[in-house]
Amino acid sequence: MTDAALSASTPRPRVSAKLFFADPRFARILLLLLVAGLVLGPVIVLVRASLAPAGMLPFETSTITLDNFRQIFASPDTLQLLWTTLLYAAASVVLGVGLAIAIAWMTERTDMPGVAFIRVFMFSWMAIPPFVIGFGWILLINPGNGALNVLLRNLFGLDRPPLTIYSFWSLVIITAFSVIPTAYVMFGGLFRNLDPQLENAGRVLGGDGFTVARKITLPLLTPGIVSVGIFMTMIVIQAFELPFIVGLSAQIRVLSTRVYLLAAPITGLPNYGLSSAFGVFLLLLAGLLMLLYFRMVGAGDRFRVVTGRGFRPKRIRLGAWRLPVAGLMFFLFVIMALPVAMLVWTSLFPSYRLPSLSALGDMSFANYARALGTPFVRQAVVNTILLVVASATGVMLLASLIAWFSVRDGGKTGRLLDMLSFAPTAIPPSIMVISILLVYMRTPLYGTIWILIVASVTVHLAFATRTMTSALIQLHKELADAALVCGASWWTTLQKIILPLVRPQLLNGWLFVAAHTSRDLTVALVLMTSSNVVLSTAIWMMWDFPDLAGAAAMAMLLVAGLLVLVLPVQIMAARDARRQD
Predict the structure, then answer these.
(1) How is domain 1-50+365-581 classified at the CATH fold level?
(2) CA–CA separation, 264 vs 552, rounded Å?
């Protein structure tokens, strides 16, 4: 029974200012217009800007020209830019996904010790902002006075620094480390749900470990591995922060940084037309990868091995290899944590100092007090809190409404809402934010914290909607039908019955959006003005000043706040997983 039918069988509420909450048909239409404005508006403006003459904003002229696209395809640098972007993404994903597969297999299929710690570490590490990781690696391996370079030169008597941050492969390795946690989370369930009876049957028939892995395990996992690889490739191609922080100094240009520098050049006037044309090109590339991703996910139906019959995943005994394997894992995590440790060290001294025992006596928290005592930083903290609370609350409320109508209605409007809300997944954040900049440039929102809130809601709408849709699908419609038959409006039903039942998913989604909003630099940097600075852009400005010690202190405060949000939830999740094991 649909909301419209149930509403017809109950007394119709009088027309009032509360029409949205009383009439589901009016609410659906209004919600559809809102989502279309948030998602389609920026895309339409982006395409229009790409067709505008040089030096003109999309709304300043009615002239349509392909000059921006001609310039892109006529430039010899375009092919090199595309090649560098694809090579960077492919190399980072191959390395990061390969390590994630190894870690996921060890934690889910073997008796390696420390599994709970690894799970908590991986989930928590996703809360660390990529730009913070980039700053830490610069302090570690810059050729001049990087801590690791100085250590290695002193240990081995080298004349030249053995490591450098300013190289293509350094960027690849650093990006691969950022890929590992997300890929690990995606592979964890894949390995956990693989029925070991298939592998056992292969061993019973005489196959050795390598043969079973090659002919049974790998073919079963191939769709999942390829789909995760495509998804992570799409994420890396869209990535902005590490290529911006590390790549620009090394003269490594990728599509995302090229789009940003055209829209916000270091010197000169912005070229929104050419930036939008590159944005359309990057949007098409991301859309192609998304189609491949869905194709692989659909192909996975032929490889389903978890059915209604129960099974217990069997863990492989490592025997004498348990401690060596755990040691290798610990070594990898130490390497991943080194940038954060270096920033902690830097934050405790008035200026940058190399780690040494003699410096321990000069450590203090003066940088933290100095930073928090600055009106500029205090305002950034207030702006960040407002941005996080408003964005997370707004996007989860909007996602709950979309999920309610798409699951309950099942008609054209519901499907259209679902499709529109998922569309931002195919739009790179840097492109979406530049599009939002063009849309709201001549409005009162521009330059305020509210344009950051609108951008954050738009960027995170797809994830929030997927989260709430998955939760609502699990609820039988009779729960809502009973309330509607008793005279409750759709809004009362959603508020009093449905949302309390999906409170855990609602909270997890809120925490995810809050953490990613507070750690994001892309949205805040593109839309930054003097009145809407948040913590991420304040840290960037202090680093660029340069005030390395102050930037490190602020970065650690941001990381501490994120871990307070994420860590307790992950510890409880790890305990639950341990009980199930």
Answers:
(1) MetI-like fold (1.10.3720)
(2) 25
Q: What is the DSSP string of 205-243?
A: TT--HHHHIIIIIHHHHHHHHHHHHHHHHHHHHH--HHI
> In Å, how far from its chain's centre is CA 531?
26
Identify whether the C-beta of residue 39 lies closer than 8 Å to the C-beta of residue 417.
no
Dist. CA 316–CA 325, nearest whole Å: 13
pLDDT digits (tens), the chain, 581 positions = 444 444 444 444 444 445 556 567 778 888 889 999 999 999 899 999 999 988 787 878 888 999 999 999 898 899 999 999 999 999 999 999 999 999 988 888 788 888 888 888 888 888 899 999 999 999 999 998 899 999 999 999 998 999 999 999 999 999 999 999 989 988 887 777 666 666 677 777 776 666 776 777 777 777 778 888 888 898 899 889 999 999 988 889 999 999 999 888 877 788 899 999 998 988 888 888 877 777 765 554 444 444 444 455 567 788 888 899 999 999 999 999 999 999 999 999 998 999 998 899 899 999 999 988 889 999 999 999 999 999 999 999 999 999 888 887 767 777 888 888 888 877 888 888 999 999 998 899 999 999 999 999 999 998 898 888 878 887 767 667 676 677 677 777 878 878 888 888 888 889 889 989 998 999 999 999 989 999 999 999 999 988 999 999 999 999 998 888 877 776 776 666 566 55
Cβ neighbours of residue 127 under 8 Å, at least 6 residues apart?
515, 519, 559, 562, 563, 565, 566
Note the residue count of the chain: 581
Dihedrals phi, psi of 574, to nearest 5 degrees: -65, -35
3-state SS class at 444 = coil
Q: Where are the domains of the chain?
A: 1-50+365-581
Measured CA distances, 505 to 100, 326, 396, 508, 512 (Å): 26, 33, 10, 5, 10
pTM of the model: 0.85
CA distance 577 to 119: 9
Q: Measured between alpha carbons, how far is 137 from 164 in angstroms, rounded to an integer? A: 10
Q: CA-to-CA distance for 436 and 329, rounded, in angstroms?
A: 42
- 193 token code pair: 């749900």
* 316 SS3 class: strand
CB 458 within 8 A of CB 432: yes
> Which residues lie below 8 Å from residue 497, measured CB to CB, with a gap of 6+?
479, 480, 483
